[in-house]
Amino acid sequence: MTDRKKKIVVIGSGFGGLGAAVRLQTRGYDVELIEARDQLGGRAYVYRQDGFTFDAGPTVITAPFLIEELFTGAGRRVEDYVKLVPVDPFYRIQFHDGRYFDYAGDEAETARRIAEFSPGDVPGYHRMIAAAKDIFQKGFVELSDRPFLKFGDMIKVAPDLIKLQSYKTVYSFVSQYIQNDLLRRVFSFHPLLVGGNPFQTTSIYALIHHLERQWGVHYAMGGTGAVIAGLGRLFTELGGQIRLNAPAKKIHVAQRAVESVELESGELLRCDAVVSNADIANTYRRLIDPQHRSWNSDRHFDRMRYSMSLFVIYFGTRKPYPDIKHHTILLCERYQGLLDDIFNKKVLPDDFSMYLHRPSASDPAMAPEGCDCFYVLIPVPNQKSGIDWTTQAQPFRDRVMKYLDANYMPGLLENLATERYFTPLDFETTLRSYQGAAFSFEPIFRQSAWFRPHNESEDIKHLYFVGAGTHPGAGVPGVLSSARIAEKLICERMPI
C-alpha cells in the first residue's frame, strides 16, 4: 500500500478542471477526471450542427502562456496539439449611432482612434494605461495564483489594494482618465466578459487592459474546443483517466476528510483528494451533506451575489458577412440603466447590448464553404429574476435576430442555415449553475480574494476548488490560475 499513488478525482472538465488534472498527473498523482456531459469542456462545450462548429462558451483567449505551460510542463510542445493565432483588432465596439471603435493592443494606434472621438482624452488614456499596468503587476502577477485561505492573507495585501483604489469600480477607474461617454464604455465593458457589472466590479479588473496588451487576444484554430481536445489528449497521454457521461452524485466524507466520490450510476470512486471544477455553490449544496459544512452552509451561498446569466444564439448563415469582425461588441443607447436592469432589478429589458462572435473570420473551416459561423451572446438576468424561459425564449430570440437583421446583418433571417439557443434555464439545468449564473459569483470587491469561496475547503480536508467561482475568478486566465493554486496546495498537503 505504501507504493500506491495518491488518487485524485477531478469533477468537471472545464479549463479549470482539465488544467488541474494535467498539472497533477504531470506531478505523478493518479488522476481520474469525471464529466457529466458527453464531451470534455464544461462551459467550453462544442456543438457541431449542419457542417458548422460552434464554441458554446469562452471565445476570447488571453494570457496564452497559461495554456502553453500545461504542455511544456509535461515536456510537450503546444504547437503539436493546438495552434493559437492573434486576433486584430481585439474587438470592434459598435455604438448605437453607427460609429464604431476598433480596440487593439497598440497604444499609439489606440490613441489615434481616441483622438477621432475626443482629442482631449488622449493624455488621460496614456495615464490610464500606466495605472492599469500597476494594477496588473499586483493583481495578476503577484496575486492571481496565490491562495487567500486566511483573513491574514487579505490583511497583508490590503495596503496595496487600497493604494490601487481597488474599492472603486471599473467604471469609476476609467472615468478618472476618460471624459467622453462613448469612450468610457469602450474602456469599461471588459468586466462583462467575466460576469461583472462595470459599475459594481472592483477596479482590480482594470488589469485586463494591460493583460491584453501584454500578450494579445488569441483564437485557437478549430475553436476554443480545439484547446480542450488538446488538453484532453495530453492528459490521457500522461496516463490520466477520463470518464464521460459520469455525473457526480455525492462526495462522501469521513472524519472531516474526503473519502470517495459517488457517481449517479452508484459506483464509488475512492480517493485521497477531490478537485471540483463544478459550480461551487452546487458542489456544496448538492454533493455534500449539510452536517459536513458549517462554514459553507446553504445560507452562506444564499447571501452571496451571483453574476448575470446569458442568452446565447448559435447560428450559421448561407451568405458571408465579411464586415463583421471576429469579436464585435454591439452597444445600445443605454449603458448604466441597461446594466442596472440586468444585475439589480433583474428584469428583461426591451433593449439589449450583445457580443457577436464570428470565428469564421479567422477560421473558415468553422463553417461550410461560402457560409459564415456566429454566436450572439446577450447578458440577461439570472434565474433569481423569475423569468419563465420556457415561454420567453422564442420571443426573445426573435427580437434579437430581427434586430441583427435590421441593423447589422441584412438578409440574416432569410439566409439562416442552422440555429440553436441556450437560455439561463439551460445554465441552471444542463450546466448545473446555481441561479443560472453564467460566471458564478459576481466579481465585486466583497466577493474577491479572501472574500471569494476559497480554493481549499474550510470544512473538509483534501477538497479543493478550481473554476470561475473561486479565486481569482472567471475567464480563461482566471480559471487556469486557479488550477495553478490547486496544484500548489495539493503538492504541499499531499506530497508524492
Q: Can you characterise this structure?
A:
This protein has 496 residues and is α/β, with parallel strands linked by helices. It folds into three domains: 215 residues, FAD/NAD(P)-binding domain (3-Layer(bba) Sandwich); 107 residues, Guanine Nucleotide Dissociation Inhibitor, domain 1 (Orthogonal Bundle); 122 residues, 2-Layer Sandwich (Guanine Nucleotide Dissociation Inhibitor, domain 2). 34% of the residues lie in helices and 19% in strands. The strands form five sheets. It has a seven-stranded mixed beta sheet with strand order 7-6-15-16-17-14-18. Strands 9-2-1-13-19 form a five-stranded parallel beta sheet, covered by helices on one side. Strand 1, helix 1 and strand 2 form a beta-alpha-beta unit. Helix 1 runs parallel beside helix 15. The protein is globular. The two termini are 14 Å apart. The model has no long low-confidence stretch (mean pLDDT 95).
Topology:
Layout: E1 7-11, H1 15-27, E2 30-34, E3 46-49, E4 52-55, H2 65-72, E5 84-86, E6 91-94, E7 100-103, H3 107-117, H4 122-142, H5 151-163, H6 170-175, H7 181-186, H8 207-215, E8 218-220, H9 224-237, E9 241-243, E10 248-254, E11 257-263, E12 268-270, E13 273-276, H10 280-287, H11 298-302, E14 309-317, E15 327-330, H12 336-345, E16 354-357, E17 372-380, H13 389-407, E18 416-422, H14 424-429, E19 463-465, H15 476-493
